[in-house]
Amino acid sequence: MSDVLINTRGNVLEITLNRPDKGNALTPEMAQAITAALKSLSPETRVVLMNAKGGDFCTGRSAAMPAAGSRATALDLRTAISDPVLDFYEVLREIPIPFITAIRGRAAGVGCAIAALADVAIAAESATFQVPEMNHDIAPTLVLNALADRVSRATLARMVLTRDVIPATEAKTLGIVGITVADAGIDAEVERVVGQLEKNSVPTVRGIKAFLSMSPETSFASRKELAALINCVATAEKFR
């Protein structure tokens, strides 16, 4: 069975991490399959939903380091280790429609980054978040890159340097996730959020996502023009 399940349900692209016996640790093949699906979205898709089988969302990345005793240059390591993950984060960041995640159990390393890159991360109250790489003397700059504009510098430094396991309710306060809900209610909450977005038109969801993506990097004057442009374009579709 595939380590990642990709299914279209109505106007929703549903991606399910499917390595429950390995904590849904991300493999290069999983990242490639997800990337291919996201780069070939149907024009009618309104939402991307990512969830996971088993007790954990994603506990990190499958080991990618060369075997002990191997010889490798910095360029070799970048090509094999750094760039694939950074490119994957870029793909998630550039999804042109709302990206929703459903988080149960542990979200560590890559899993924490995916949660933070979502437009709306919905976490069960028992979920936890961690950046544990420094426990293995690994500099987690790849996760830092994903989180840098999602949380404050103080939060970023605390997560990386202390490697604290952060409970869902605190993760919401820190801005890692958007919604926390009792474990028994997470499926209903996910369906509520996704169901609302399915009712919107493609121009509306794409326009809002474009504004969310671009506005942090623009001045007030530019945001004003961007807001007017997106609003008019999305609304005009109703009068064609």
UniProtKB/TrEMBL annotation:
<dbReference type="Pfam" id="PF00378">
    <property type="entry name" value="ECH_1"/>
</dbReference>
<dbReference type="GO" id="GO:0003824">
    <property type="term" value="F:catalytic activity"/>
</dbReference>
<protein>
    <submittedName>
        <fullName>Enoyl-CoA hydratase</fullName>
    </submittedName>
</protein>
<dbReference type="InterPro" id="IPR051683">
    <property type="entry name" value="Enoyl-CoA_Hydratase/Isomerase"/>
</dbReference>
<dbReference type="InterPro" id="IPR001753">
    <property type="entry name" value="Enoyl-CoA_hydra/iso"/>
</dbReference>
<keyword id="KW-0614">Plasmid</keyword>
<comment type="similarity">
    <text>Belongs to the enoyl-CoA hydratase/isomerase family.</text>
</comment>
<dbReference type="InterPro" id="IPR029045">
    <property type="entry name" value="ClpP/crotonase-like_dom_sf"/>
</dbReference>
